Amino acid sequence: MRHRELGHTGLTVSEIGYGAWGLGQGAWVGADDDSGVRALHRAIDLGVTFIDTARAYDRSERIVGRALKELPGGGDGVHVATKAGPKVPVSLAPSGIDVMEAFPGAHLRESLETSLRELGRDHVDLLQLHTWEDEWTGRGDWLETVDALKQEGKIRAFGISVKDHQPENVLTVLRTGVLDTVQVIYNVFEQAPSDALLPACEEHGVGVIVRVALDEGALTGAIRKGVTFPEGDWRNWYFRDDRPAEVEERVEAILAELRIGADELPSAALRFALAGQAISTVIVGMRSLTNVERNAAIAEAPPLTAQELSLLAKHRWQKNFYG
Prior knowledge:
Layout: E1 3-5, E2 12-14, E3 16-19, H1 33-45, E4 50-52, H2 60-69, E5 79-84, H3 99-102, H4 105-119, E6 124-129, H5 142-151, E7 155-161, H6 171-174, E8 181-185, H7 197-204, E9 207-211, H8 235-238, H9 243-258, H10 265-274, E10 279-284, H11 289-296, H12 306-313
Parallel strand pairs: 3-4, 3-10, 4-5, 5-6, 6-7, 7-8, 8-9, 9-10
Antiparallel strand pairs: 1-2
Helix pairs in contact: 1-2, 1-11, 4-5
């Protein structure tokens, strides 16, 4: 497993990180505590040193905590990131909510303390806000709380997880120098972060955590017309109506242009994300041992060539299946 610097935090993290949303057993059907622990242990065995979870991910923090506790040294050397959600619901559209309603400092501290109890740790390496509106920059008392939590040793770094498909909605606060990291959707289809956000992160030394590099499975080759998911699985909503057929058509075009089979697509998609400017790590949801081993194996794969990257750049697709 190759490693990279996480911006200017002083932390070094694995290129492939573990996205732990699916371990929570809420939105994703088919996981349980024991299988989640096994998957995490296997990922760490294969060199994964960065785990991303959140207060909002149902049981996820608890499972991460259990998995680390069962390792020698309590998982020393594995970096854990979590997220504090807003105190009140914040929509993807501009909400008009004041930052003191969404992220008052007391709420931020309370959320972190709950996360630490669930994780069984005395600190996290990275605390992130689970949403953001750039008009909140310079307002509220959240930053004072972040600074205090750093001084107390409860967090080592601080970042923001950007709203889905809104990579520009963090540029103002980023340029103030208060962020250590930004987490953003970036993949073969969603290339908008490369326009302004990734260059800004490189300029300011901010580490970039890529999420949804496989587009919730669309870039694995498994989403085709007629695909079905277990009852209660959120992907029934994400890939609703004629969306699987749209994905299949787009994926077939990628496979034809790269002259690869569908089984090679996940590796190509992850290597595309890793080639982005200022990228520190790409977090991937991987609940099965098979997927853990497949994704970790890209450590042995060469980077995509300039020609391959140029071909993939043409497959930018302005869509928003979250809408």
